[in-house]
Amino acid sequence: xxxxxxxxASVALALQGGGAHGAFTWGVLDRLLEDGLRVDRMCGVSxxxxxxxxxxxxxxxxxREGAREEIQRLWRRVAHAHTLSxxxxxxxxxxxxxxxxxxxxxxxxxxxxxxxFSPAQLNPFGHNPLTHLLADLIxxxxxxxxxxxxxxxxxxxxxxxxxxxxxxxxxxxxVLCASACLPFVFPAVRIGKRAYWDGGYSxxxxxxxxxxxxxxxxxxxxxxxxxxxxxxxxTPMEITNRLNEIACQNVLxxxxxxxxxSVRLTSYDADEALLDLPIxxxxxxxxxxxxxxxxxxxxxxxxxxxxxxxxxxxPTSPRRGG
Length: 322
Fold this sequence. Notes:
The protein is of the alpha/beta class. Helix content is 42%, strand content 13%. The chain has 11 helices and 9 strands.
C-alpha cells in the first residue's frame, strides 16, 4: 500500500535471511520505498534482521529516504569489509567460475575444517566478524525513536528449539549476530544465560509478531532463499544447505497457511535470481556481486510478473509423487 491511498492501510514486512543473498532483499525494498511504501511493522532473521534494523533506524531519522540510505550504507560496509577477506576469487577464478567460491582453496579448506572440527574448536574465542561491523552501524536511540516502525528480530534458542523474539529496545550487535549465527560456522551466541543459533531454524521469519495486536492489512514477504531448487545436491555443504532451506521453508509455509484470510499476502520470490547460485555465494560480499543481486531485486519489485499476490482462500493439498 502507498501513502497516496485514501485510507492508510497497515503494512507488515517479513524478511528472510540468506547471507549475501540478502542483497536481493535490499533491491526489492529500495524500489518499494522509492515507490512510496510505508511500513508499520516488520520481522526478520539473519540478513533480513540486519536489513530491517537499518530500515528502522533510517526511517526514524528521515523517512523513506533515510531508510534507503541506511540499507545502502550497510551493504557498502559489507563490500568494503569483504575486500580484506581471503575468501574471494582471483580475477582468473572469477572468469572461470563467476560468483561461485567453492573452487577456491580457501573455501575447500574451510569446508574440510568444518567437517572435521566443531565451531568451538575452530574458533575458541567466538570471534564473529559481524560483531564489529554491526556495532559501528547500529544507533539504538533511533531504533527506539517514536517514528521508528516496530521491529522484531528472531533467534533460535539452542536448548528449546523455539524462536526468541527481540524488540526495538533490545536489538544490538549481539542480538543480530545471534539471529545470523550459522551453527556449522560460528559458536552459539550467548545473550544472558541463553545460547542462540540462526533465527531461520524456528521461522524464516516467524509471522506471529506481525499479527499482534491485530493483523495488518497487507503482509509483504521478501524471500532471500530459493523456494524450489531443481536437481539433487551431492556435496556435503550443498546437501546441508538444501536441508536447511527445506526445514526453514516448511515452518514458514505452515505459518502462511494459518494467516487470516483478511490479510493480503504479496510474495517477492528470489528463485530466478538465486537458482544457479551455490551455497558459497552466500559468503560472497564482492561489490559487483551484491550490486547484481540488488538490481535483480529492484527488477523483481518493478515487474508485476515476478511477484505474486497469494490467494489463501482455496485449500491446498500436498503434491503426489510421479
